[in-house]
Amino acid sequence: MKFLKTFLGQSIFLCLLTSTLFAQQNICIDSTNSAEELSLALCPSCINKIAAGSNITNFYNSSDTGRTWHHGTMQSTYGVYGDPTLICDTAGNFYFIHLSNPPIKGYWLDRMVCQKSTDGGITWSNGSYAGHVQDYVHSSPERNQDKPGAVVDFSHSPYRGHIYLSWTQFDKYDSHLSTDSSHIFFAQSDDTGNSWSPPIRLDNKGGDCLDGDLTDEGAVPCVGPEGEVYVAWAGPNGLVFKKSMDGGLNWSAEEKKITPIIGGWDYDVSGIFRSNGLPMICCDLSNGPYRGTIYIGWSDQRNGSDNTDIWYVKSTDKGETWSPPLRINNDDSHRQQFMTWLSIDPVTGYLYSLFYDRREHGGDTTDVYLAVSKDGGNNFCNFRINDRHFVPKESVFFGDYIDVAAYNNIVRPMWMQLYKYKLCMYTAIINPGDLDWALYTPPGPMVSNSSCEIGGNNESIWFTYNLENMGRINLSVIDMQGKQVYSIFSNRMMKEGPHEYLLDVKKTNLNPGVYAYKLEAGEDKRYKTFLVY
Predict the structure, then answer these.
(1) Of 167, 267, 377, 500, which has the highest C-beta tally within 10 A?
(2) Rounded-to-integer distance, Cα 11 and Cα 24, Å
(3) Distance CA 466, CA 520 (A)
Protein backbone atom coordinates (compact mmCIF):
# COMPACT_ATOMS: atom_id res chain seq x y z
CA MET A 1 0.00 0.00 0.00
CA LYS A 2 1.28 3.48 -0.89
CA PHE A 3 0.92 5.84 2.06
CA LEU A 4 2.14 9.44 1.76
CA LYS A 5 5.50 8.25 3.11
CA THR A 6 6.19 11.09 5.58
CA PHE A 7 4.25 13.90 7.19
CA LEU A 8 6.52 16.37 5.43
CA GLY A 9 5.27 15.04 2.14
CA GLN A 10 1.66 15.85 2.94
CA SER A 11 1.92 19.49 1.86
CA ILE A 12 2.42 18.38 -1.75
CA PHE A 13 -0.77 16.34 -1.57
CA LEU A 14 -2.73 19.07 0.20
CA CYS A 15 -1.93 21.76 -2.33
CA LEU A 16 -3.71 19.68 -4.94
CA LEU A 17 -6.89 20.19 -2.91
CA THR A 18 -7.03 23.95 -3.50
CA SER A 19 -10.61 25.29 -3.52
CA THR A 20 -12.11 22.20 -1.89
CA LEU A 21 -13.95 22.57 1.38
CA PHE A 22 -11.65 22.42 4.38
CA ALA A 23 -14.45 22.32 6.92
CA GLN A 24 -17.98 21.22 6.16
CA GLN A 25 -19.77 22.49 9.25
CA ASN A 26 -20.48 26.21 9.55
CA ILE A 27 -21.95 27.51 12.82
CA CYS A 28 -23.99 30.72 12.80
CA ILE A 29 -23.07 32.40 16.07
CA ASP A 30 -25.21 35.53 15.76
CA SER A 31 -27.83 36.53 13.18
CA THR A 32 -29.75 39.14 15.17
CA ASN A 33 -27.25 41.81 16.33
CA SER A 34 -25.65 42.84 13.01
CA ALA A 35 -22.33 41.61 14.39
CA GLU A 36 -19.17 42.83 12.63
CA GLU A 37 -15.51 43.47 13.49
CA LEU A 38 -15.03 40.10 15.12
CA SER A 39 -12.36 38.88 17.50
CA LEU A 40 -11.89 35.58 19.33
CA ALA A 41 -9.44 33.87 21.66
CA LEU A 42 -8.83 30.20 22.46
CA CYS A 43 -7.88 29.14 25.98
CA PRO A 44 -4.60 27.16 25.88
CA SER A 45 -5.08 25.77 29.38
CA CYS A 46 -8.65 24.59 28.66
CA ILE A 47 -8.94 24.13 24.92
CA ASN A 48 -12.72 23.67 24.86
CA LYS A 49 -13.28 27.30 25.98
CA ILE A 50 -13.51 30.17 23.49
CA ALA A 51 -14.42 33.83 24.04
CA ALA A 52 -15.34 36.25 21.28
CA GLY A 53 -16.64 39.75 20.69
CA SER A 54 -18.21 41.90 17.98
CA ASN A 55 -19.29 45.50 17.47
CA ILE A 56 -20.43 47.27 19.38
CA THR A 57 -21.18 45.65 22.74
CA ASN A 58 -21.56 41.93 21.97
CA PHE A 59 -19.65 39.18 23.76
CA TYR A 60 -19.88 35.43 23.22
CA ASN A 61 -18.54 32.34 24.94
CA SER A 62 -18.40 28.66 24.12
CA SER A 63 -17.42 25.73 26.33
CA ASP A 64 -17.44 23.08 23.58
CA THR A 65 -14.80 24.42 21.16
CA GLY A 66 -17.29 26.60 19.31
CA ARG A 67 -20.21 24.28 18.60
CA THR A 68 -22.67 26.19 20.78
CA TRP A 69 -22.49 29.79 21.97
CA HIS A 70 -23.89 32.08 24.64
CA HIS A 71 -24.40 35.76 23.85
CA GLY A 72 -24.30 38.71 26.21
CA THR A 73 -23.95 42.50 26.21
CA MET A 74 -20.73 44.01 27.55
CA GLN A 75 -21.17 46.81 30.09
CA SER A 76 -18.67 49.09 31.82
CA THR A 77 -18.83 52.42 33.60
CA TYR A 78 -16.11 53.55 31.15
CA GLY A 79 -18.44 52.91 28.23
CA VAL A 80 -18.25 50.25 25.49
CA TYR A 81 -17.80 51.49 21.94
CA GLY A 82 -16.59 48.63 19.78
CA ASP A 83 -13.33 47.58 18.10
CA PRO A 84 -13.13 44.42 20.26
CA THR A 85 -9.83 42.62 20.73
CA LEU A 86 -9.90 39.28 22.58
CA ILE A 87 -6.87 37.58 24.15
CA CYS A 88 -6.28 34.85 26.76
CA ASP A 89 -3.41 34.66 29.26
CA THR A 90 -1.28 31.81 30.59
CA ALA A 91 -3.70 31.19 33.48
CA GLY A 92 -6.81 30.93 31.29
CA ASN A 93 -8.17 34.44 31.93
CA PHE A 94 -9.84 36.14 28.96
CA TYR A 95 -9.47 39.86 28.21
CA PHE A 96 -11.91 41.93 26.14
CA ILE A 97 -10.24 45.20 25.06
CA HIS A 98 -12.35 47.87 23.40
CA LEU A 99 -12.99 51.57 22.82
CA SER A 100 -14.69 53.76 25.41
CA ASN A 101 -17.69 56.06 25.45
CA PRO A 102 -17.97 57.36 29.03
CA PRO A 103 -21.11 59.16 30.19
CA ILE A 104 -19.22 62.45 30.52
CA LYS A 105 -20.02 65.38 28.26
CA GLY A 106 -17.22 66.15 25.85
CA TYR A 107 -15.44 62.79 26.25
CA TRP A 108 -15.50 60.11 23.54
CA LEU A 109 -12.97 57.38 22.82
CA ASP A 110 -10.95 58.79 25.69
CA ARG A 111 -9.17 55.56 26.72
CA MET A 112 -8.61 51.87 25.97
CA VAL A 113 -10.75 49.70 28.25
CA CYS A 114 -9.74 46.17 29.29
CA GLN A 115 -12.40 43.93 30.86
CA LYS A 116 -11.37 40.59 32.33
CA SER A 117 -13.14 37.24 32.70
CA THR A 118 -11.96 34.48 35.03
CA ASP A 119 -14.80 32.06 34.22
CA GLY A 120 -14.40 31.36 30.53
CA GLY A 121 -16.00 34.55 29.20
CA ILE A 122 -19.29 34.15 31.08
CA THR A 123 -18.94 37.21 33.31
CA TRP A 124 -16.66 40.24 32.95
CA SER A 125 -15.14 42.82 35.29
CA ASN A 126 -15.95 46.50 35.03
CA GLY A 127 -12.49 46.93 33.56
CA SER A 128 -9.20 48.77 33.79
CA TYR A 129 -7.91 51.24 31.22
CA ALA A 130 -4.86 52.57 29.41
CA GLY A 131 -4.23 55.92 27.75
CA HIS A 132 -6.90 57.96 29.57
CA VAL A 133 -6.60 61.54 28.37
CA GLN A 134 -6.82 63.01 31.89
CA ASP A 135 -4.01 60.82 33.21
CA TYR A 136 -1.12 62.12 31.13
CA VAL A 137 0.12 65.65 30.56
CA HIS A 138 0.58 65.13 26.83
CA SER A 139 -3.14 64.51 26.32
CA SER A 140 -6.26 66.63 26.20
CA PRO A 141 -9.99 65.81 26.29
CA GLU A 142 -10.22 66.16 22.51
CA ARG A 143 -7.78 63.34 21.80
CA ASN A 144 -9.32 60.04 20.73
CA GLN A 145 -7.97 56.54 21.25
CA ASP A 146 -8.81 54.10 18.42
CA LYS A 147 -8.25 50.57 17.04
CA PRO A 148 -6.47 48.48 19.70
CA GLY A 149 -4.27 45.46 19.15
CA ALA A 150 -3.16 43.24 22.03
CA VAL A 151 -1.11 40.14 22.86
CA VAL A 152 -0.09 38.11 25.92
CA ASP A 153 3.58 37.16 26.38
CA PHE A 154 3.73 33.34 26.23
CA SER A 155 7.53 33.24 26.05
CA HIS A 156 9.62 31.77 28.85
CA SER A 157 11.35 35.11 29.39
CA PRO A 158 11.07 37.21 32.59
CA TYR A 159 8.15 39.00 30.88
CA ARG A 160 5.95 35.91 30.57
CA GLY A 161 2.32 36.80 31.29
CA HIS A 162 2.68 40.50 30.48
CA ILE A 163 -0.06 42.00 28.30
CA TYR A 164 0.97 44.39 25.52
CA LEU A 165 -1.44 46.89 23.97
CA SER A 166 -0.97 49.20 20.97
CA TRP A 167 -3.39 51.64 19.36
CA THR A 168 -3.82 54.91 17.43
CA GLN A 169 -4.26 58.24 19.19
CA PHE A 170 -5.89 61.03 17.18
CA ASP A 171 -5.30 64.64 18.21
CA LYS A 172 -8.88 65.00 17.04
CA TYR A 173 -10.66 62.34 15.01
CA ASP A 174 -11.61 63.44 11.48
CA SER A 175 -9.82 66.76 11.85
CA HIS A 176 -8.71 68.39 8.58
CA LEU A 177 -6.25 70.70 10.33
CA SER A 178 -2.61 70.13 9.36
CA THR A 179 -1.66 70.73 12.99
CA ASP A 180 -3.61 67.62 14.11
CA SER A 181 -1.92 64.24 13.83
CA SER A 182 -2.40 60.53 14.47
CA HIS A 183 0.23 58.58 16.42
CA ILE A 184 0.87 54.99 17.53
CA PHE A 185 0.91 54.41 21.29
CA PHE A 186 1.87 51.43 23.44
CA ALA A 187 1.18 50.38 27.05
CA GLN A 188 1.62 47.19 29.04
CA SER A 189 0.26 45.44 32.11
CA ASP A 190 2.36 43.18 34.35
CA ASP A 191 -0.47 42.39 36.81
CA THR A 192 -3.00 40.51 34.65
CA GLY A 193 -4.72 43.62 33.37
CA ASN A 194 -5.42 45.30 36.71
CA SER A 195 -3.29 48.35 35.87
CA TRP A 196 -1.38 49.75 32.89
CA SER A 197 1.88 51.57 32.32
CA PRO A 198 1.90 55.17 31.05
CA PRO A 199 1.63 55.08 27.23
CA ILE A 200 4.72 55.35 25.05
CA ARG A 201 4.57 56.90 21.60
CA LEU A 202 6.13 54.58 19.00
CA ASP A 203 5.90 56.38 15.66
CA ASN A 204 8.42 59.06 14.76
CA LYS A 205 6.44 61.31 12.43
CA GLY A 206 2.74 60.43 12.58
CA GLY A 207 -0.07 60.78 10.07
CA ASP A 208 -3.21 62.80 9.52
CA CYS A 209 -6.50 62.41 11.41
CA LEU A 210 -8.76 61.42 8.50
CA ASP A 211 -8.69 57.65 9.16
CA GLY A 212 -7.38 56.86 5.67
CA ASP A 213 -4.20 56.04 3.76
CA LEU A 214 -2.25 58.92 5.33
CA THR A 215 -3.26 58.00 8.89
CA ASP A 216 -1.09 55.90 11.24
CA GLU A 217 -3.49 53.05 11.95
CA GLY A 218 -3.86 49.36 12.69
CA ALA A 219 -1.04 48.86 15.21
CA VAL A 220 -0.73 45.23 16.32
CA PRO A 221 1.84 43.67 18.69
CA CYS A 222 3.31 40.19 18.93
CA VAL A 223 5.92 38.50 21.12
CA GLY A 224 9.07 36.56 20.21
CA PRO A 225 10.51 33.44 21.89
CA GLU A 226 12.84 35.47 24.12
CA GLY A 227 10.25 38.05 25.14
CA GLU A 228 10.91 40.42 22.25
CA VAL A 229 7.97 42.74 21.53
CA TYR A 230 7.24 43.60 17.90
CA VAL A 231 4.66 46.11 16.61
CA ALA A 232 3.60 46.74 13.01
CA TRP A 233 1.20 49.33 11.58
CA ALA A 234 0.18 51.04 8.34
CA GLY A 235 0.37 54.67 7.38
CA PRO A 236 1.85 57.22 4.97
CA ASN A 237 5.17 55.34 5.18
CA GLY A 238 3.56 52.07 4.13
CA LEU A 239 4.09 49.00 6.32
CA VAL A 240 6.09 50.06 9.38
CA PHE A 241 7.77 48.05 12.16
CA LYS A 242 9.37 48.69 15.55
CA LYS A 243 10.72 46.36 18.25
CA SER A 244 11.65 46.23 21.91
CA MET A 245 14.16 43.76 23.33
CA ASP A 246 13.34 44.38 27.00
CA GLY A 247 9.62 43.73 27.38
CA GLY A 248 8.40 47.01 25.90
CA LEU A 249 10.45 49.39 28.08
CA ASN A 250 12.75 50.66 25.33
CA TRP A 251 12.24 50.67 21.58
CA SER A 252 14.30 50.85 18.42
CA ALA A 253 15.00 54.48 17.64
CA GLU A 254 13.79 54.53 14.05
CA GLU A 255 10.78 53.06 12.30
CA LYS A 256 11.69 50.32 9.86
CA LYS A 257 9.83 50.88 6.60
CA ILE A 258 9.27 47.36 5.32
CA THR A 259 7.36 47.90 2.09
CA PRO A 260 4.94 50.37 0.47
CA ILE A 261 1.26 49.41 0.60
CA ILE A 262 0.48 49.98 -3.06
CA GLY A 263 -2.83 51.77 -3.48
CA GLY A 264 -2.95 52.47 0.27
CA TRP A 265 -4.45 50.50 3.12
CA ASP A 266 -7.86 52.20 2.68
CA TYR A 267 -9.07 50.79 -0.65
CA ASP A 268 -12.42 50.14 -2.34
CA VAL A 269 -14.01 46.76 -3.06
CA SER A 270 -17.39 46.67 -4.79
CA GLY A 271 -20.27 45.65 -2.53
CA ILE A 272 -18.33 46.53 0.64
CA PHE A 273 -19.12 49.78 2.45
CA ARG A 274 -15.49 50.04 3.56
CA SER A 275 -12.52 47.73 3.16
CA ASN A 276 -8.94 48.00 4.34
CA GLY A 277 -5.60 46.26 4.17
CA LEU A 278 -4.43 46.91 7.72
CA PRO A 279 -1.65 44.56 8.86
CA MET A 280 -1.54 41.64 11.28
CA ILE A 281 1.71 40.44 12.87
CA CYS A 282 2.58 37.14 14.56
CA CYS A 283 5.71 35.23 15.59
CA ASP A 284 6.46 31.51 15.74
CA LEU A 285 6.81 30.40 19.38
CA SER A 286 6.82 26.69 18.58
CA ASN A 287 9.81 24.40 18.95
CA GLY A 288 9.74 23.72 15.22
CA PRO A 289 12.32 24.66 12.59
CA TYR A 290 10.85 28.14 12.04
CA ARG A 291 10.85 29.22 15.68
CA GLY A 292 11.33 32.98 16.00
CA THR A 293 10.19 33.81 12.45
CA ILE A 294 8.05 36.98 12.32
CA TYR A 295 5.22 37.23 9.79
CA ILE A 296 3.21 40.31 8.77
CA GLY A 297 0.12 39.93 6.56
CA TRP A 298 -1.96 42.58 4.81
CA SER A 299 -3.84 43.16 1.56
CA ASP A 300 -3.40 45.79 -1.15
CA GLN A 301 -4.12 46.57 -4.79
CA ARG A 302 -0.63 46.54 -6.30
CA ASN A 303 -2.05 44.29 -9.04
CA GLY A 304 -4.94 46.64 -9.80
CA SER A 305 -8.10 47.96 -8.16
CA ASP A 306 -10.10 44.96 -9.43
CA ASN A 307 -7.48 42.42 -8.26
CA THR A 308 -6.84 42.94 -4.55
CA ASP A 309 -4.50 40.28 -3.15
CA ILE A 310 -3.35 38.96 0.23
CA TRP A 311 0.35 39.48 1.00
CA TYR A 312 2.88 38.71 3.68
CA VAL A 313 6.51 39.35 4.51
CA LYS A 314 8.67 37.44 6.98
CA SER A 315 11.84 37.99 8.97
CA THR A 316 14.15 35.34 10.45
CA ASP A 317 16.50 37.78 12.21
CA LYS A 318 14.21 39.55 14.69
CA GLY A 319 13.02 42.12 12.17
CA GLU A 320 16.38 43.37 10.96
CA THR A 321 15.76 42.23 7.38
CA TRP A 322 12.57 41.18 5.59
CA SER A 323 11.58 39.10 2.62
CA PRO A 324 9.97 40.78 -0.39
CA PRO A 325 6.15 40.75 -0.39
CA LEU A 326 4.83 37.23 -1.10
CA ARG A 327 1.29 36.36 -2.14
CA ILE A 328 -0.91 34.07 0.01
CA ASN A 329 -3.89 33.57 -2.32
CA ASN A 330 -2.80 31.09 -4.99
CA ASP A 331 -5.43 31.75 -7.67
CA ASP A 332 -4.89 33.12 -11.17
CA SER A 333 -8.40 34.53 -11.47
CA HIS A 334 -7.39 38.23 -11.22
CA ARG A 335 -10.34 38.73 -8.89
CA GLN A 336 -10.70 40.17 -5.41
CA GLN A 337 -9.25 38.78 -2.19
CA PHE A 338 -9.61 41.19 0.73
CA MET A 339 -9.97 41.86 4.48
CA THR A 340 -7.47 39.36 5.87
CA TRP A 341 -6.35 38.16 9.29
CA LEU A 342 -3.14 36.27 10.05
CA SER A 343 -2.55 33.92 12.98
CA ILE A 344 -0.05 31.27 14.02
CA ASP A 345 -0.43 28.10 16.07
CA PRO A 346 2.12 28.51 18.91
CA VAL A 347 2.43 24.72 19.32
CA THR A 348 2.79 23.55 15.71
CA GLY A 349 4.07 26.74 14.06
CA TYR A 350 1.41 26.40 11.33
CA LEU A 351 0.43 29.74 9.81
CA TYR A 352 -3.22 30.58 8.97
CA SER A 353 -4.61 33.41 6.85
CA LEU A 354 -8.36 34.08 6.65
CA PHE A 355 -9.83 36.30 3.93
CA TYR A 356 -12.79 36.97 1.66
CA ASP A 357 -12.36 35.63 -1.88
CA ARG A 358 -14.14 35.98 -5.26
CA ARG A 359 -11.96 33.69 -7.38
CA GLU A 360 -14.82 31.36 -8.30
CA HIS A 361 -17.34 34.03 -9.31
CA GLY A 362 -17.95 37.11 -11.35
CA GLY A 363 -19.35 40.27 -9.81
CA ASP A 364 -19.67 40.61 -6.04
CA THR A 365 -20.42 36.97 -5.12
CA THR A 366 -18.07 36.18 -2.25
CA ASP A 367 -16.61 33.17 -0.42
CA VAL A 368 -14.45 32.81 2.69
CA TYR A 369 -11.03 31.17 2.35
CA LEU A 370 -8.51 29.84 4.83
CA ALA A 371 -4.90 29.52 3.69
CA VAL A 372 -2.52 27.25 5.61
CA SER A 373 1.27 27.07 5.58
CA LYS A 374 3.08 24.24 7.37
CA ASP A 375 6.56 25.16 6.16
CA GLY A 376 7.27 28.59 7.56
CA GLY A 377 5.33 30.49 4.92
CA ASN A 378 7.19 28.97 1.98
CA ASN A 379 3.95 27.52 0.59
CA PHE A 380 0.27 28.19 1.30
CA CYS A 381 -2.61 25.86 0.51
CA ASN A 382 -5.98 27.62 0.04
CA PHE A 383 -9.35 26.16 1.12
CA ARG A 384 -12.88 27.51 0.85
CA ILE A 385 -14.54 27.14 4.26
CA ASN A 386 -17.99 28.74 3.90
CA ASP A 387 -20.83 26.43 2.92
CA ARG A 388 -22.89 29.14 1.20
CA HIS A 389 -21.80 31.91 -1.19
CA PHE A 390 -23.09 35.39 -0.40
CA VAL A 391 -23.36 38.80 -2.04
CA PRO A 392 -22.55 41.79 0.22
CA LYS A 393 -24.33 45.12 -0.08
CA GLU A 394 -22.67 48.50 0.37
CA SER A 395 -25.63 49.59 2.48
CA VAL A 396 -24.68 46.97 5.11
CA PHE A 397 -21.53 47.84 7.08
CA PHE A 398 -19.16 44.84 7.25
CA GLY A 399 -16.69 46.39 9.66
CA ASP A 400 -12.93 46.38 9.19
CA TYR A 401 -11.70 42.96 10.27
CA ILE A 402 -12.32 39.25 10.80
CA ASP A 403 -10.29 36.76 12.85
CA VAL A 404 -8.79 33.28 13.08
CA ALA A 405 -7.14 31.64 16.10
CA ALA A 406 -5.30 28.33 16.49
CA TYR A 407 -3.80 26.25 19.27
CA ASN A 408 -2.35 22.76 18.88
CA ASN A 409 -4.30 22.09 15.67
CA ILE A 410 -7.58 23.47 17.03
CA VAL A 411 -8.40 26.12 14.41
CA ARG A 412 -11.36 28.47 14.65
CA PRO A 413 -11.98 31.15 11.98
CA MET A 414 -14.65 33.81 12.47
CA TRP A 415 -16.23 36.00 9.81
CA MET A 416 -19.37 37.91 8.74
CA GLN A 417 -21.55 37.24 5.72
CA LEU A 418 -24.87 38.49 4.42
CA TYR A 419 -27.84 36.11 4.34
CA LYS A 420 -31.32 37.30 3.36
CA TYR A 421 -30.19 40.92 3.90
CA LYS A 422 -29.07 40.08 7.45
CA LEU A 423 -25.47 40.27 8.62
CA CYS A 424 -24.55 36.96 10.27
CA MET A 425 -21.51 35.94 12.32
CA TYR A 426 -20.02 32.51 11.56
CA THR A 427 -17.33 30.09 12.58
CA ALA A 428 -16.27 26.81 10.96
CA ILE A 429 -15.87 23.71 13.10
CA ILE A 430 -12.63 22.17 11.92
CA ASN A 431 -12.85 18.94 13.91
CA PRO A 432 -10.11 16.42 14.50
CA GLY A 433 -12.04 14.24 12.07
CA ASP A 434 -11.81 16.97 9.46
CA LEU A 435 -8.05 16.75 9.82
CA ASP A 436 -8.21 13.25 8.38
CA TRP A 437 -7.58 14.87 4.98
CA ALA A 438 -4.04 15.38 6.31
CA LEU A 439 -3.76 11.75 7.38
CA TYR A 440 -5.46 10.21 4.37
CA THR A 441 -4.78 6.51 3.78
CA PRO A 442 -6.04 4.66 0.70
CA PRO A 443 -7.89 1.38 1.29
CA GLY A 444 -5.48 -1.43 2.20
CA PRO A 445 -5.55 -5.20 2.51
CA MET A 446 -5.15 -5.47 6.28
CA VAL A 447 -7.32 -2.94 8.10
CA SER A 448 -10.83 -1.61 7.54
CA ASN A 449 -13.66 0.19 9.33
CA SER A 450 -11.60 2.08 11.90
CA SER A 451 -13.39 4.61 14.11
CA CYS A 452 -13.07 6.65 17.33
CA GLU A 453 -15.66 7.28 20.00
CA ILE A 454 -15.04 9.73 22.85
CA GLY A 455 -16.24 8.65 26.28
CA GLY A 456 -17.89 10.82 28.90
CA ASN A 457 -16.05 13.91 30.18
CA ASN A 458 -13.16 13.28 27.78
CA GLU A 459 -11.87 10.57 30.16
CA SER A 460 -11.63 7.76 27.62
CA ILE A 461 -11.51 7.35 23.86
CA TRP A 462 -12.51 4.14 22.10
CA PHE A 463 -10.68 3.06 18.98
CA THR A 464 -12.23 0.28 16.93
CA TYR A 465 -10.74 -1.45 13.89
CA ASN A 466 -11.18 -4.58 11.84
CA LEU A 467 -8.36 -6.88 10.74
CA GLU A 468 -8.97 -8.82 7.56
CA ASN A 469 -6.09 -11.21 8.28
CA MET A 470 -4.11 -12.40 11.27
CA GLY A 471 -0.86 -10.48 11.79
CA ARG A 472 1.45 -8.56 14.11
CA ILE A 473 0.10 -5.16 15.09
CA ASN A 474 1.59 -1.91 16.43
CA LEU A 475 -0.72 0.66 18.03
CA SER A 476 0.39 4.07 19.33
CA VAL A 477 -0.66 7.68 19.78
CA ILE A 478 1.11 10.37 17.73
CA ASP A 479 0.92 14.15 17.60
CA MET A 480 0.18 16.12 14.44
CA GLN A 481 3.86 16.23 13.54
CA GLY A 482 3.94 12.42 13.42
CA LYS A 483 5.93 12.02 16.66
CA GLN A 484 4.97 9.11 18.91
CA VAL A 485 3.79 10.39 22.29
CA TYR A 486 2.35 7.18 23.76
CA SER A 487 2.92 3.50 22.92
CA ILE A 488 -0.06 1.20 23.41
CA PHE A 489 1.44 -2.08 22.20
CA SER A 490 4.12 -3.22 19.78
CA ASN A 491 4.49 -6.32 17.60
CA ARG A 492 1.43 -7.98 19.12
CA MET A 493 -0.03 -10.96 17.25
CA MET A 494 -3.77 -10.49 16.68
CA LYS A 495 -6.31 -12.59 14.84
CA GLU A 496 -8.62 -11.41 12.10
CA GLY A 497 -11.94 -9.73 12.93
CA PRO A 498 -13.09 -6.69 14.93
CA HIS A 499 -10.97 -5.23 17.73
CA GLU A 500 -11.18 -2.26 20.05
CA TYR A 501 -8.99 -0.34 22.45
CA LEU A 502 -10.01 2.03 25.22
CA LEU A 503 -7.47 4.81 25.83
CA ASP A 504 -7.47 6.15 29.40
CA VAL A 505 -6.64 9.81 28.82
CA LYS A 506 -5.73 10.44 32.47
CA LYS A 507 -2.95 7.85 32.38
CA THR A 508 -1.36 9.22 29.21
CA ASN A 509 -0.61 12.74 30.56
CA LEU A 510 -1.46 14.15 27.12
CA ASN A 511 -1.71 17.93 26.93
CA PRO A 512 -4.86 19.43 25.37
CA GLY A 513 -4.76 19.24 21.59
CA VAL A 514 -5.25 17.03 18.55
CA TYR A 515 -3.67 13.57 18.35
CA ALA A 516 -4.10 10.45 16.25
CA TYR A 517 -4.14 6.72 16.78
CA LYS A 518 -1.52 5.13 14.55
CA LEU A 519 -2.24 1.50 13.67
CA GLU A 520 0.39 -0.48 11.76
CA ALA A 521 -0.53 -3.88 10.33
CA GLY A 522 2.26 -5.17 8.12
CA GLU A 523 2.74 -2.55 5.42
CA ASP A 524 -0.68 -1.09 6.09
CA LYS A 525 -0.96 2.05 8.25
CA ARG A 526 -4.14 3.69 9.49
CA TYR A 527 -4.67 6.92 11.40
CA LYS A 528 -7.65 8.28 13.30
CA THR A 529 -7.56 11.72 14.90
CA PHE A 530 -9.10 12.65 18.24
CA LEU A 531 -9.22 15.64 20.56
CA VAL A 532 -8.03 15.89 24.16
CA TYR A 533 -9.34 18.91 26.04
Answers:
(1) 167
(2) 20
(3) 12
Can you say whether the dihedral through the CA atoms of 199, 205, 209, 211 is positive or negative? negative
Please state, in angstroms and as integers, the Cα–Cα distance from residue 432 to each residue in 23, 343, 410, 435, following that order.
11, 19, 8, 5
CB atoms within 10 A of CB 462: 14
**Cβ neighbours, 10 Å, residue 284:** 27
Closest by CA position to 321, among listed 351, 344, 293, 341: 293
Total Cβ atoms within 10 A of residue 432: 22
Peptide bond between residue 56 and the one before it cis (omega within 30 degrees of 0): yes
Nearest 5 degrees, angle CA 377-CA 91-CA 42?
45
Q: What is the 3-state secondary structure (H, E, C) of 264-315?
A: CCEECCCCCCCEECCCEEEECCCCCCCCCCEEEEEEECCCCCCCCEEEEEEE
pLDDT score, position 502:
80
Q: Model confidence over 172-201: pLDDT tens digits?
A: 999 999 999 999 999 999 999 999 999 999
Query: Is the confidence at residue 64, as pLDDT, over 70?
Result: yes
Q: Which residues of 222-235 are buried (b: 16+ CB within 10 A; e: fewer)?
A: bbbbebbbbbbbbb
Nearest alpha carbon to residue 112 among 201, 185, 191, 50: 185
Give the β-pairing of 280-283 and 513-521.
unpaired
What is the chain's mean pLDDT, rounded?
A: 87
Hey, CA dihedral for 461, 442, 435, 6, is it positive or negative?
positive
Sorted by sequence, the CB contacts under 8 Å of residue 92 that are 6+ apart come out as 43, 44, 45, 46, 49, 120
Tell me the helices (H) and strands (E) count for the chain, helix number first. Answer: 2, 37
List 295's β-bridge partners, or say none. 282, 314
Mind listing the domains of the chain with CATH numbers? 17-430 (2.120.10.10), 435-532 (2.60.40.2550)
Contacts of residue 378, defined as CB under 8 A and 6 or more positions apart, other chains included, come to none
* Chain-centre distance for alpha carbon 347: 13
243: β partners: 230
Residue 279: C-alpha distances to residues 434, 514, 524 (Å) = 29, 29, 46
The contacts of residue 414 (CB under 8 Å, 6+ apart) are 29, 38, 39, 40, 52, 402, 403, 404, 425, 426, 427
The answer to whether the CB of 515 falls within 8 A of the CB of 532 is yes
Concatenate the DSSP letters of all residues of 107-149 into one string. Answer: -SS-SEEEEEESSSSSS----EEE--TTTSTT--TT-EEEEEE
Q: Which residues pair with 371 in a beta bridge?
A: 353, 382
Task: Look at residue 495 in the predicted model and tell me its pLDDT.
Answer: 75
The number of residues in the chain equals: 533
Q: Mention every residue, 6+ apart, whose C-beta is less than 8 A from residue 114.
A: 95, 96, 97, 127, 128, 129, 130, 163, 165, 189, 193, 196
